[in-house]
């Protein structure tokens, strides 16, 4: 991530506006739809879920409320502090500052991964591949990795539910065994997501 873009990202999130975004306006629809999709693939509680790039922790708190154990990570220190405040007294929820491209979690240490934020901000293909590779590394071999990303005005939500056969080559070109699920998410112009056999190529370089 370029230094200028990273500074811009931190400046934006330092305003604290992300904390309530999913509880109002279009954010409420985004949260409701995303949680519905997540539940289709998650293993049963009390499975351990890594919420990578989880912002101020709206999804982490939701998962903890359902009985899941959660390892929350975010690049923005303010988000980690906010979640620690909101999660005070909640057992099984841990948070720390960490980069999606270089996670502090052990190999195959979690049962599922959510990667709902980082790919929006990683502009270079190599960085997106690295983040996806880290998600693959920390999840159990058969664990689901769920991620969202934008391609232009297309918002796409995808899950690899049955493990991996090879390292993903990029956000729009991947290899995954078994069934996959892709959903347009909260975008008036979103019409479809692509299965592996017809992926239109990688987005950007």
- Secondary structure: number of strands: 7
The CATH architecture can be named as 3-Layer(aba) Sandwich
Multimeric state of these chains? Answer: single chain
Number of helices: 6
CATH superfamily: Vaccinia Virus protein VP39
How are strands sequenced across the largest beta sheet? Answer: 3-2-1-4-5-6-7
Structural class by helix and strand composition: alpha/beta
Separation of termini?
Answer: 12 Å
In the predicted model, the low-confidence regions spanning at least 5 consecutive residues are 152-157, 161-205
Gyration radius over CA: 16 Å
Overall mean pLDDT: 75
Question: Could you give a short account of the major beta sheet?
Answer: 7 strands, mixed
Helicity, as a percent range: 25-40%
Reading the helices and strands in chain order gives: HHEHEHEEHHEEE
């Amino acid at each position: 991530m370029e230094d200028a873009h990273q500074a811009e990202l931190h400046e934006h999130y330092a305003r604290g506006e992300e904390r309530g975004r999913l509880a109002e306006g279009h954010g409420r629809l985004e949260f409701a739809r995303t949680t519905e999709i997540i539940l289709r693939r998650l293993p049963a509680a009390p499975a351990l879920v890594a919420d990578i790039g989880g912002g101020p922790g709206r999804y982490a708190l939701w998962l903890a409320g359902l009985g899941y154990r959660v390892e929350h990570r975010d690049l923005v220190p303010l988000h980690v502090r906010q979640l620690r405040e909101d999660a005070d007294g909640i057992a099984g929820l841990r948070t720390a500052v960490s980069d999606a491209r270089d996670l502090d979690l052990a190999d195959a240490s979690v049962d599922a991964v959510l990667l709902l934020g980082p790919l929006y901000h990683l502009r270079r293909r190599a960085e997106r591949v690295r983040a996806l590779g880290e998600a693959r590394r920390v999840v159990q071999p058969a664990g689901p990795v769920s991620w969202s990303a934008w391609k232009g005005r297309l918002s796409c939500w995808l899950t690899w539910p049955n493990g991996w056969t090879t390292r993903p080559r990029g956000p729009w070109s991947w290899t995954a065994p078994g069934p996959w699920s892709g959903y347009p998410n909260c975008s008036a112009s979103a019409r479809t997501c692509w299965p592996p056999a017809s992926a239109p190529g990688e987005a950007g370089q």
